[in-house]
Amino acid sequence: MHYPDSFLPLVQPTQNSESLYLFDEQMPVDVVDAALLFKSECPPDVKFKSENLFKFRRGKGDFHASVVAAILALVFLAFFWTETGWENRKLPDELGSYIGHQFGLIELDGRVKRLGTILKQSWVVPLLCLLVLVPAALLNLRESWRVRQWRKRFMLPTDASYETAKYAAALEYVVYFIMYTISVPILGYLLSTLILGTYLTWRLGYRTPKWLLIGLLSSFAVVIVFRSVLQIKTPVSIWLYDQLPAALRVFMLTYF
Hints:
The chain has 12 helices and no strands. The protein is mostly helical and 256 residues long. Among the domains are: 1-38, no CATH class; 170-256, no CATH class. The longest helix is centred in the middle third of the chain and has 30 residues, at 124-153.
């Protein structure tokens, strides 16, 4: 490989200086190949196409996500009987007449029930959701397994450690939200929101004074809109506000 004369002192050390390095890792970095030493985990940007908006493609982590979805669907099905009251439900002896009456197909006691009556019962909507969710999750799991076996057959990668790590990393922000909800009854909505908004700005990499100030002011604007303007309810008993004088405590509970 030929280099310009200006690079020769950097890429071709003298004989005396070369003897100072015991291992290859200690040699000076090649100026031309320095960019190749950096590897980003972020995929390169691609041009967005509108036809790809609803395009579905199964990746390496699709099977693992399908397993989780199927387990959740089966858990919802298992707890349907206890959570919707069907476990202790007593059906009438004439079940056919009861169903026809609920759907407005037959007349009992001289009056016809409207169809909306059965839709108002607590178990109907969860049952309709499960009738769609469970078959869809199981069919999706089956297709995902077939794609996984196809990838293994042609020796394509199936490891989903990268995708799993990204899903696990997102749980960090769930912890932040839980800590935020716990801090509101202690510090109040105003101070908790200011701390969370400023910290998230810093956590996302915007760490200059300008961006930290923007995060602080944006959080304050959120408090003004939700508490002062919309009057969204917050806990009545707040430890920090209870330490304030009576008039200031009422003001803070009303507007902040």
